[in-house]
Design brief:
single chain; about 50 residues; mainly alpha; 1 helix; about 0% strand; rod-shaped
Length: about 50
């Protein structure tokens, strides 16, 4: 396995950063969606149960 020591251009760095931001936002939206769906499926009475 060889190590690639190439230097990215400024444009490549910007594209990589924007792709990383898009992936992070997508992941955050998915986490929020799963959280909301879980709370909705559990129902409003989940907080009223005795401990």
């Amino acid at each position: 396995m060889t190590k690639n020591n190439s230097v990215l251009s400024e444009e490549q760095t910007k594209v990589r950063r924007s792709r990383s931001i898009a992936l992070a936002v997508t992941l955050g939206v998915l986490v929020l969606l799963f959280y909301v769906v879980t709370i909705v499926k559990l129902g409003p009475g989940v907080m009223d149960r005795p401990m």
